[in-house]
Design goal:
Layout lengths: L2 H9 L3 H11 L1 H4 L3 H14 L9 E2 L1 H10 L6 H11 L7 E2 H8 L4 H6 L6 H138 L5 H16 L3 H123 L6 H15 L11
Antiparallel strand pairs: 1-2
Helix pairs in contact: 2-4, 2-7, 2-12, 6-7, 9-10, 9-11, 9-12, 11-12
């Protein structure tokens, strides 16, 4: 195989493989530059937009970008001249190995002649161990992320469930208090209704008493009217008797003084007048006595009737007021009872809803507690996955250290594997040497 073919075989390998090959070939000279070679290999991968880690060389544009990043900016012409100096196939592309040989002033023939070490089996085993570390790391990351998500979710669910349970408890307590108040209002409404009924009964009794007094006042008024009729009759009798006596007196006086009559006739009249005036007026005196008695009876009956009427009017007014008050109390009691019944129904419904909400909140709280327990188990599983990853990392570290101390090994390969292991350890938990 020609030198060109051998070199093309190397430059067709991945950026990582080219970097490892260069370090194996010149380890004693470039050990201190190994970190730069690692960094540049990652830069090649970053710039290779199509093949990434599977790529082997960059086009002119990205090669120029790489040189800018490592502060070796050249013009396109200068870059082509540099590439031409080491690009044996003149494909106008820059492989990782081409750049390293050019930078460290190594020839292609010198590189091809350098041994890569006789530890290919050990490197293969170490690579397999790193793959297992990566798998374990991926699993521990997955388990940790799931555990964290489950813990966050269970924490949020627990907080929400607690808040809901607290709110439901407050609502239930408030609903119970409202139901208690509604029941008390209903009892008060019943008491008010009973009181209104009692007042209505009292008002009816007062009305009955007022009616009885009105009847009594009517009877007294009738008595007063009868007494007044008797008085008027007695007065009329006295007046008639007085009028008849006075009339006879005037007639006799007139005859006794009438000069048209004879002396005999006038004297006779005077004599009759004297007899008339001398007569005892018993009927008239009796009539006056009767009139006086009737007047007293009429005055007394009138006073009694007026007093009875006043009492009856007062009783009627009191009865009317009591009836109005009783009716107002009845209406208020009916309205209060209706409102109390409605409030009680509403309070009972609110309490039933609050109880249902509390039951649901308790169920959610129980579910959250179950989720928390599951999250705890997930956390334990994640911790176990981390422990397994740590064990695999320690095993790989020990194996690589062992290979590093053996003579004849490709130390560049060993260093590169160790560097990859260090990179993977960055993603382990902080307590295990990682960054999270």
């Amino acid at each position: 195989m020609s030198l060109t073919e051998q070199f093309r075989e190397w430059t067709s390998k991945t950026y990582k493989e080219q970097g490892v090959a260069f370090l194996n070939a010149y380890w004693q000279e470039v050990e201190s530059e190994a970190e730069n070679v690692w960094k540049w290999a990652n830069m090649f991968v970053e710039l290779d937009q199509q093949k990434k880690a599977e790529g082997s060389d960059l086009d002119e544009f990205n090669a120029h970008r790489f040189l800018e990043k490592v502060q070796e900016t050249r013009t396109v012409k200068e870059l082509r001249e540099q590439l031409k100096a080491i690009d044996l196939d003149f494909n106008k592309r820059m492989a990782m190995l081409e750049y390293l040989l050019f930078r460290y002033k190594k020839s292609v023939s010198d590189f091809v002649s350098k041994p890569q070490g006789d530890n290919s089996k050990e490197i293969e085993k170490a690579s397999a161990m790193l793959e297992e570390v990566q798998k374990a790391l991926d699993e521990s990351l997955r388990a940790s992320e799931e555990a964290k998500a489950a813990a966050d979710e269970s924490k949020a669910a627990a907080a929400a469930a607690k808040a809901a349970a607290d709110e439901a408890a407050r609502s239930a307590a408030a609903a119970a208090e409202r139901a208690k108040e509604a029941a008390a209002s209903a009892q008060a409404a019943d008491a008010s209704a009973k009181e209104a009924a009692a007042r209505a009964a009292d008002a009816q009794k007062a009305a009955d008493e007022a009616s009885a007094r009105a009847d009594e006042a009517a009877a007294k008024a009738a008595d007063a009217k009868a007494a007044e009729d008797e008085q008027r009759a007695a007065l009329a009798d006295v007046q008639a008797q007085e009028d008849a006596r006075n009339k006879k007196t005037e007639e006799l006086k007139a005859k006794g003084e009438d000069q048209n009559l004879g002396v005999v006739a006038r004297n006779k009249a005077k004599n009759e007048l004297a007899q008339h005036l001398a007569e005892d007026p018993l009927p008239l005196r009796k009539a006056k006595i009767t009139l006086e008695a009737a007047t007293k009876r009429a005055a007394k009956a009138t006073a009694v009737a007026e007093e009875a009427k006043a009492a009856a009017d007062a009783a009627a007014a009191a009865a009317a007021s009591a009836a109005a008050a009783a009716e107002s109390a009845r209406q208020a009691a009916v309205a209060a009872k209706a409102q109390a019944d409605a409030d009680k129904v509403q309070a009972d419904e609110a309490k039933a809803q609050a109880d249902a909400d509390k039951a649901e909140a308790d169920a959610r709280k129980a579910a959250a507690e179950g989720a928390a327990a599951e999250a705890e188990r997930a956390a334990e599983a994640a911790e176990e996955a981390v422990r397994q990853t740590e064990a695999r990392v320690q095993e790989a570290e020990a194996y690589l250290e062992e290979q590093k101390n053996k003579s004849g090994n490709g130390l560049g390969s060993v260093w590169w594997l160790q560097r990859e292991l260090e990179e993977k350890k960055k993603y382990m938990p902080k307590s295990k040497g990682g960054k999270w």
